[in-house]
Write a structure and sequence with these properties.
Blueprint lengths: L2 H20 L4 H17 L4 H4 L6 H27 L8 E7 L4 H13 L3 E8 L12 E7 L5 H19 L2 H33 L1
Antiparallel strand pairs: 1-3, 2-3
């Protein structure tokens, strides 16, 4: 998306969020959303990273949305079951998840997606900024509070998978490729850890 289209796109996106929050499509909600979105854009300082051109791949953006909605449904059902059953299955913790990063927009997309999913919340984002001048964040760590963190690697894998999809939809090919390799490497380490755990459990039973 070019810089000239960025601000109108932000206004339209904020307007859509406003209408969605009211859960009613009406002229009044649309006009009010446009006014609120315009005010937010006017009073918010948009930095260089917010206005720089980005990639947009519609089919992968749609796929990202569908995956996010599925995660949203799963989390809501899990929390609903937790409420109606007497036994607690929660295991809360705050996890640090290193990310490939890409751009501030990608990091914010992933962080907000996590926060919008019931049972998880992004509590902090640590970033070192663009140290080498390539326009990408060089070191990003998300600190995530989760209600179901008995399997830490599973939570981290879900976050890395979400980042990979976000980069595939909106990031550069180079950032996506690095994120994909990170995800594959994490999957391999996770499989090895589960294999060792299974063997240890089998030895204890014997």
């Amino acid at each position: 998306m070019t810089t000239a289209l960025r601000v109108p796109a932000i206004v339209l996106w904020l307007t859509a969020l406003w209408v969605a929050l009211w859960a009613e499509i009406s002229w009044g909600n649309v006009v009010a959303g446009l006014l609120v979105a315009s005010f937010v854009v006017l009073v918010t300082r948009l930095d260089r990273s917010s206005l720089e051109p980005t990639y947009f791949r519609p089919h992968w953006a749609l796929y990202y949305t569908l995956v996010f909605l599925w995660k949203l449904i799963q989390s809501n059902l899990k929390l609903a079951w937790e409420i109606v059953t007497p036994t607690l299955h929660t295991h809360t913790a705050i996890l640090a998840v290193p990310m490939r990063g890409g751009s501030e927009a990608i990091v914010n997309l992933v962080a907000n997606s996590i926060t919008l999913t019931p049972g998880t919340m992004t509590v902090d984002i640590h970033s070192e900024g663009d140290l080498d001048g390539d326009g990408a964040l060089d070191e990003v760590v998300l600190y995530i509070h989760g209600m179901y963190t008995a399997d830490v690697d599973a939570v981290r894998h879900d976050v890395l998978r979400l980042e990979e999809l976000a980069l595939r939809a909106f990031g550069t090919p180079e950032d996506y490729e690095r994120a994909h390799l990170d995800l594959v490497a994490h999957q391999k380490r996770w499989d090895e850890a589960r294999g060792r755990s299974a063997r240890a459990q089998q030895e204890d039973e014997e």
